Amino acid sequence: MKTVQGLRTMVSKLLILPTTGTRTMADAVPAFYGFAGPRTPESGVPESGITEPGERRTFEAGSADATAARVVLGGAEVDLLALPSAIDLIAARALRKDTTPLAVASANLDHINHFGAGSRWASVLGGDSTVPEGAPSLEWLTLLDGAPLVSQAERLTGRHWPRLAGSDLIGPLLDVATSLNLSVGFLGGAREAQESLKERLGRERPGLILAGFWSPSREDLTDAEVSTGIAAEIAAAGVDILVVGLGKPRQELWIAEYGSLTGASVLLAFGAVVDFLAGRVKRAPEWVSSKGLEWAWRLALEPRRLARRYLLDGPPAYASLRINSSVIREQSEEQREQFVASAPVGFAPPPVGNRAFAPVGQPADVAVLVVTYNNAQDVDLLIESLRAEAADQWLRVIVADNGSSDGTLEALARHGDVISFATGGNLGYSGGINAAQQHCGDVNYLLVANPDLVIERGSVAALIRRQRNSKAGIVVPALLDEDGSIYPSLRREPSLTRAWADAVLGSHLPGRPAWLSEIDYDRESYQHAHPVEWATGAAMLIEAHLAEEIGPWDERFFLYSEETDLFRRARKAGARDWFEPAARMRHRRGGSGSSSALTALMAVNRVRYAEKHHRPASAAGFRGAAVLSEALRSYQHDHRPALRALLNKGSWDDLPHAVPATRKNDDGGPASAFPAGSIIIPAHNERAVIARSLRSLEPVAAAGTVEIFVVCNGCTDDTAEIARSFPGIRVVEIEQPSKTIAMDTGDSLATAWPRLYLDADVEVEPAAIEQLFRRLGQGDILAARPDSRYDTDGATALVRAFYRARGRMASTKSGLWGAGAFALTREARSRFGTFPPVQADDVFVDRHFSDAEKEIVACPPIKVHVPSNARTLVTVLGRTYRSNVQLLDYQANEGGSSGQSLLELLSSIRGLRTGVDAGVYVGFAVVSRLRKRPAKATTWERDESSRG
């Protein structure tokens, strides 16, 4: 469905009319419509009528120049035309049966309310977003209607444009249809009104071909099967012009979804035109319309039906009109090429009858990410429903198990092509998704799915089709309860007014205005595809490039609000989120369990979300709303702990959070989850970050089997005092400000193996340490490091591009360097003596082991903080390059080369966006190598922008 791109685009698509047949332009067509003048023998078109494609068209008839303009009024795109131009265009398109159908709507304040900026149906009438698969596209022509919009259009363009209401256009269009032998059908209106209209048209326009009348109920219009049948009936009747009078927004939504199936060349979304033509509703007098008071006239005639539209919805729409209006600038060819270049890459379809999932190493269309926790009874149903979906596209199914004790992993092991693994503990939903995402491989989409879902056939394909049609970043399906009813899963961005209204009203008054409710209860919202702000996280399809752009799920949200945060970050990155009702998934909603602790966590995480994204004063307002909500419900036992938690912020750490797994001894008693080992952390003036790093190690220290040494080398601040405040941490102070001497000192004190050498500004999950130590304990590798991710939150666009490119390079996924952490067995450590006096210690260690002797362990990734701005990045890279040169001088062994890195970079390019990232990477590399070290540089030249 394409929006008409101004009159230049429109005339280029107009027909060259045939010279024979019954549907050529008759000489009897009134001159008022712009078709006056002699016909040319070549085309059959009057000389003053339709121009050649590519020419700008100006009409002689009418009171105003008809040169078209396109504007955005209140967030809705509107085409500005004179009346003769509009009639000409619609009539010409009605004559053609082999072109894209034209849908015509009128834009007034009610249109802005439904289709403007921030509305529920914004963007629904643009692009191919709602056209069924296999159906032709639609073009939309949105005409100017309503006095406020006329005034705003005049302010934007500097000239007057006429109102073109459907009630003004319908008479001239019926005249043209009569003259050109075009058949007309009517959809909408009461049967009595249709009978009156049929009788009146037969009397006043006896030559008009009436193809049929259809008067479906509201329930019929919301039933996809019934609506498809109605469209088929209209197509069988041979309708050329279909007048759809269902009222806004229903008529536009119905046309968007089913109009292309009707076979009509033109579809007119003209509201109450059936009642006007039948004489059941009286038009306002001319003097009323000319004063812009037709709304008051109609309100006086139908106060019950129109009071909400004009008195409640009208003022916000008018405010949006004044704020969200502009002249449209056409998209350049370069922008269109960039957009196409960033589209997902298509892979070969699965073989007919396929029910297998894509193995590791093979490209796949979708990586399905599932987090389980005691879901042994659910996973078989989910996997079987996914196997049916695998017939349409290649799926890779990845399951991260968060410490199940009911045999979930054993149940998953029966499915040999499912990638399943234990995360090492209960990392929470976000942590589990992040762990699963490390195994995605080469895919176009990520489908995050709860384990207690059953996916209806064709749903994954429907989600992909919606993404490709609407260019959405995230697409969510319709969720069904076990009884088949629609679960209200769509949400609006949390705001103070919604938070306080929800606190007082809860689920009562579901029909209240959108600004007073976070949950979208409106049944109509679940019947049509449209953009949404966010939805419950049980299922969502995420475009892979977007997932890479916004980074991992925020693990501060153990459960609840993690999806709210993800959707917000996606919108901040410029992505749109869509709902697709054709994708349907049944959800038991029991996968996470239920308890008073989880109720408290839900309340607290709403406040955490507000504190992350809002100013302190606003966050306090959200907390107040949460306190009120739980206080009003404290008569229920489950809500009392939530109220206590909200009132005592110090208790938040006691709520459910990420914990390592626990094991049992042979006698059934609990045993530590952690194998023995040592962690050595060199620290030089790290007061800004040492607490952040040690806080993540508190569960490890509490296990009692891991030695943790913080070696403060040449510190002049209170790093040592901060480190000593953490239980289980041994602090050693030496005078020399040397990282390598600090690591040697830690080695001299440590007694356990393996040993993890950890930079002071690195955060690592306990489960990652456990899996790292266990992997090294298996004996087939000597050195390893945990998987890692770059934390680019708060970084500039150029810095993010640099690290996206760096993350795609193969060497970053195979070397021990670059993550601020590496671990060695006793045998590995014996390969060299003391650490040499070089800054590139991780590169030094990496070169002592072959690829077969070292490994990047698949575990919850450690967080590597990156510079926040370009200047700091150049400084850090300059230090890195000089450190490598220093190492080469020390070893006299080059190892890698710039040429090899360049080849890696080039091989990572898959499209325009990745190419741009690679260009940014090269630019930083060149500048950093050429930059001289400042004379007053500190010893480390470290990144201060990510500290604090």
Automatic annotation (TrEMBL):
MF-aspect GO terms: glycosyltransferase activity
Domain called Glycosyltransferase 2-like: residue spans: 368-490, 678-799
Presence of keyword Transmembrane helix: no
Keywords: Glycosyltransferase, Transferase
SUPFAM superfamilies per the UniProt record, alphabetical: Nucleotide-diphospho-sugar transferases
InterPro entries: Glyco_trans_2-like (IPR001173), Nucleotide-diphossugar_trans (IPR029044), WecG_TagA_CpsF (IPR004629)
Annotated metabolic or biological route of this protein: Cell wall biogenesis; cell wall polysaccharide biosynthesis
Entry similarity comment: Belongs to the glycosyltransferase 2 family.
PANTHER family (UniProt xref): GALACTOFURANOSYLTRANSFERASE GLFT2, RHAMNOSYLTRANSFERASE WBBL
Protein name: WecB/TagA/CpsF family glycosyltransferase
Lineage of source species: Bacteria, Bacillati, Actinomycetota, Actinomycetes, Micrococcales
